[in-house]
Amino acid sequence: MAKLINLKTFKEFFNSSSGGGIILLICVVISLAIANSPLAWGFEKFLHTVVGFKTESIDLDFSVIHWINDGLMAIFFLLVGLEIKREIIEGELSSIRHASLPVLAAIGGVVVPATIYSLFNAGTPAVHGWGIPMATDIAFALGIVSLLGDKVPSGLKVFLAALAIVDDLMAILVIAIFYTSNLHLDYLIYAAGVYAIMIGFNRMRLHNIFFYIIPGMVMWYLIHHSGIHATIAGVLTALTLPTTPDDKESPLEKLEHALAKPVNFLIMPIFAIANTNITFVDGMVEGLTGNVGLGIVLGLFLGKPIGIFLMSFISVKAKIAELPEKTTWTHVLGLGMLGGIGFTMSIFIALLSFKDSISLQTEAKFAVLVASVCSGIIGFALLNFYSKKKKKEAIPQQA
């Protein structure tokens, strides 16, 4: 029986750069199918089933969807944070000019979409949703890039990851300031204290990973109860992991290697299935031409690439920053399109923006889905086409 199964094919798939992205996209389709089938009610009930425990001093009694979005995704953010720190220490982001590019590009990718939405909804009850088209969904954007494999420069992938991290941190800050009704400063102060201890461990060169993971879990709990989205704890924890000055594998690299496959082939697919279960109802298509629909679709699909490209272009021409190695302006435009994939954070902000209106929530969620799908397809197609074009141009030169 074992001889009938080609295990080598499975190993190659799970070791490929595109494997995680392919599974991610399949899970999006599965989630949409479930949401529009008789299984929808049961699946929704399952996602809101409460799991955990609660005592007088500890509250870990959350729904399944809550555990996924705040718990599992913190691990995803931990992995991305590790990759970013590694690149800052020894990679594409190791110079100030390189590191400044994703920060400035992210600012453009936040300001322009929010402005477009506000122009369409100024003076209406829906103006509070200006934060919806701001965020890039790291999981899906990187999933699309992974499908391209070596067709795009490695520096572009790092650029996207760094940009998406800064983008999401800005979105989290916006949520904390403008969309959080109860911000508990005492929990934030405790979290800052724990983080200071973790930085101290780093300064003491303690290389046991558990000196960072266990306090990181405590910090996750404290940040979660402060009212701020808890996934930021993953990034903060990653930044405290120590590196080594030589070729010896560092604690940062060990943890990064340990998390790569579980995140790509388990956490991200679970996240996709749980968060893209949008039920299609009458009036959704018509809603795309309303103020909310146009503000979100144009904000994500046009605002994101315009903001990212424009700020990148200005910062490079002003010699404030420089493009990653082998990256062209066409690559930046394609990356900007992928920045328009909003999904989870955009939907999350939509729910916060329109707490008292189910119809506006539905309209906003569908607009996010349409804009994200269009952005993902166009971004992928542009980068793929450009790669093939460059390859054809290189063949005569090699001959």
List keywords for this structure.
399 residues; mainly alpha; 16 helices
Question: Could you outline the blueprint of secondary structure elements for this entry?
Answer:
Layout: H1 7-15, H2 19-35, H3 40-47, E1 50-54, E2 59-63, H4 64-90, H5 96-121, H6 138-148, H7 154-179, H8 185-203, H9 210-226, H10 232-240, H11 251-275, H12 284-287, H13 291-317, H14 329-338, H15 343-353, H16 358-398
Antiparallel strand pairs: 1-2
Helix pairs in contact: 2-6, 2-11, 4-7, 4-10, 4-11, 5-7, 5-13, 6-7, 6-16, 7-15, 8-9, 9-10, 13-14, 13-16, 14-16, 15-16
As a whole number of angstroms, the C-alpha radius of gyration is 21 Å
- SSE string: HHHEEHHHHHHHHHHHHH
Ranges where pLDDT stays below 50 over 5 or more residues in a row are 1-6
Major β-sheet strand ordering: 1-2
Question: Which percent range describes the beta-strand content?
Answer: under 5%
What is the typical, i.e. mean, pLDDT?
86
Count of discrete alpha- or pi-helical segments spanning 4 or more residues: 16
State the secondary-structure class.
mainly alpha
Most strands sheet: 2 strands, antiparallel
* Residue share in helix: over 70%
Shape: globular
| C-alpha termini separation | 48 Å
Query: How many strands?
Result: 2
